[in-house]
Every structure is written in C-alpha cells, then in structure tokens.
Amino acid sequence: MLAKRWATALIMLAGFLASLFLFSPPAWAILLLVLLLLGTREWGKLSGFGTAGSALYALGSGLLGGAIYLFGTHYHAWIYLAATTFWLVLAPLWLTFRWRLNHALLRAVSGWLILVPLVLAMLDLRAYSPLLLLLLMAVVWIGDSAAFFSGKRFGRRKLAPGISPGKTWEGVAGAWLAVTLYALIILLLAASQGHVYAFADAWLPLVLLAWLLLYLSILGDLFESWVKRLAGVKDSGTLLPGHGGLLDRIDALTPSLPIAALIVLHGNALYRSVS
To answer: What are the extents of the domains in the chain?
Structure first.
C-alpha cells in the first residue's frame, strides 16, 4: 500500500511539474477544467447527489468555470473575497458547531466556493509566475509531510478527535517549524540572487504568509474530513491509487491558494480601496 502511494505521488508530481512549466495557457486552462469537473463530481457524491446528480452538478460547474474564464476576468478578486469569507468565517463555524447542511442548494454553493476559486487561483498564479505557484503549493506540501512524520513520531494530543482522529498538536508543531524554515530558506536564496534587497523588511511578511497558508491548509484538511465523516466514507473517491480521490489530495490547497492569490495578486488594490 505504501509503495503504491509513493508511486502515485511521484507520477502526479512529475505530471504536475511538466504541465506547470511546459503547457501553453489554453492547455493549462483545460487541465484545470478537468480538475474542476472531477472535483465537483466527487463533492456531489459526498453531498448525496447520487451518480446522475453528481454528473449534472459537475457539468454545471464546468460551464460555470468556463464562463468565468472566458468572460469574468474582472471578477476574480471578488470570487477570491467570497472564498476568503467562506474559509475564514463560515468554515470554522461549520466545524465548531458540526453543521450538517444537508440542503442540496447549500451543498452545491459550498462546493463552488471551495473548488471554483481554487481553479481560478491556479490559473491566475501560474499566469503571474509558474515558480511562484509552485513555491506556494510547496508550503502546503511541506507542512502536510512534516505534520505526518512529526505526528507519527511524537503525536500524543489530538487536534480534532471528533473530526479527524489522526491529527495531533505535535504534528501541527512540526508543520509550523518546517514551513517557517522553508520560508526563511526561500528568502535567503532570493536575497543571495539579488531578488530581495531588504531582508529585514521582507522576512516577517513572508513568514506570516507561510503561517497563514499552514493554518488554511489544516482548516481545509479538517473541513474535508468532516464532510467525509458526514458522508460515512474514508476517501472522497478512488481516482488515485493509494491516495483516494482528488479531493483527498487537494483539500489543503482549496483554502490556501485562493487566499494567497488574493493577497499576492490583489493585495495592493485592496489596500488602496480601504485606505
């Protein structure tokens, strides 16, 4: 099982890196559309829409995503703001009060707020800089890996036993240390290449961004765990051997990348609008 998990992870990573740096913008957009279709189909099944209902929901989501891509460029910042509100306000309340939200419309809208902004963020951040997108995603991957190994070695106190019994506070501490070191290493490497001229001014915002992304990645992971618990399933699907479904692999990215895109791509405009 572990060998299958590692093999799938390596294949996915190689494919992702190739597409990230080699695909044309239209090809990258098509890839993201496929991701949206697969992700919303899994969300539909977790939400109890059934096989046919999930397929129709995925089709509608694809049409929505395509329309936003073709005609909604000027609305991306608002979509990121909607996602930020969901993840920083509604999702914590959802987990705190263990909401079930069995109403189909609420589940459908929630799926769009979770997956459409993620696809847009991957589209916009890649257009801005493929390397930046990779570095932001690496924060999540490093935090997740560090949490797994430190939790497995030192884990004693459960983080959210009623939602995801395997996560521990010790795992969170290991992830926090790993992403902090990662952020500082990236900043030092950038400074050594002449890309950062004021290390004393730049290190704190970068570290705070890494901490925010770590928090969001944990939130996304817990949120999907709660949705799966409500659905009575261990994995969101069977698409990826050894890993489960697509949502099982992107759950930590769903909150972190849209909010990162809002900060990185629209932060200055937002600051000017409120100052």
So the answer is: 2-274
